[in-house]
């Protein structure tokens, strides 16, 4: 079950990222690298992390006009991550072009509603739907665009999977029972998120900020 945990290595420091990745390589299902890491280290840093031998999830959350996103995805061909994110709010054409530009071995998944947002946040940016409705809407759009799956919270994943039985569902906003939530708002435990239908879990700080990240990962895996 630990193989379904992708650890978010959110640091601009390549040496630190490599050190954490090295500690986790025996138990993590993969490593997720985001904007913080990519802005500091680029493709060269991603290749170094890939050298640890774990699948790489490149969480760039691309969101721009279709041509720009497709060109950015094309520019990643030397990396070929296992998973790449775009924002579903970029629209159907953007998602179609992102998928068409990706390497065949890369799953392209769409972020629906960030797990750091709740209904009030959606309201404040002019989205009348609640997170549940908005995730369902964007999941349908991502499916129509030919993507491989979506990113959503554990609260929406069961309904999203009903809409897309063979979709790939990435669930961040995951915390062990009683763990600090930080900036996340729609949070679920790892066990509950898998039971609800997550394909993989993304977990960052509860593991990377622990004194012993591998022990923290194994403790979470033991709850699955
Ligand atoms: O809706 C989303 C999409 C992506 N993320 C990313 O997942 C990790 C979560 O890290 P934690 O430390 O476990 O909170 C982080 O890299 C986010 O960029 C997300 O949280 N929610």
Automatic annotation (TrEMBL):
PROSITE patterns assigned to the protein according to its UniProt record, in alphabetical order: OMPDECASE
A molecular-function term among this protein's GO annotations: orotidine-5'-phosphate decarboxylase activity
Keyword Lyase belongs to the record: yes
UniProt keywords, alphabetically: Decarboxylase, Lyase, Pyrimidine biosynthesis
Active site: 61 (proton donor)
Pathway in which the depicted protein is active: Pyrimidine metabolism; UMP biosynthesis via de novo pathway; UMP from orotate: step 2/2
NCBIfam families given in the database record: PRK00230.1, pyrF
Name of the featured protein: Orotidine 5'-phosphate decarboxylase
Native species: Sphingomonas vulcanisoli
